[in-house]
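The records we work with from here on pair a chain with its fold. Each token is a code from a learned vocabulary of local backbone shapes. A record is reproduced here so that you can trace the correspondence yourselves:

_____
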Amino acid sequence: MSVAWRYDCGILTSDFTFVRLQNVAKLHAKGIGTITGKLLVGTAESIPQTELIDTTGAGDAFIGAVLYSICANMPPEKMLPFAAQVAAIKCRALGARAGLPRSTDHHLSHFLV
């Protein structure tokens, strides 16, 4: 078991307890409740500094890709790397929308089969 710490008005508190048992993770927040599920850990593409233009909208691109993945019934093991790839592609252009990839983008071809 591990405890996640956070700052609350300048005071370090432990409001969240995280427990991982084999393939099942449990997160408990005081006063809110407990969530139990699978813990998936993945990696994202490393973007060379010369290609990194603007991170504006990268989080929105990630969430949008997760929502698309859910609608497309993509398995979670594929969903998170796909969303990370969409966010990474977005960071290669200026602005929140200009860098969003199309379904024909070659970086996404192995996700969208």
Q: What stands out?
A: The longest strand covers residues 11-21.
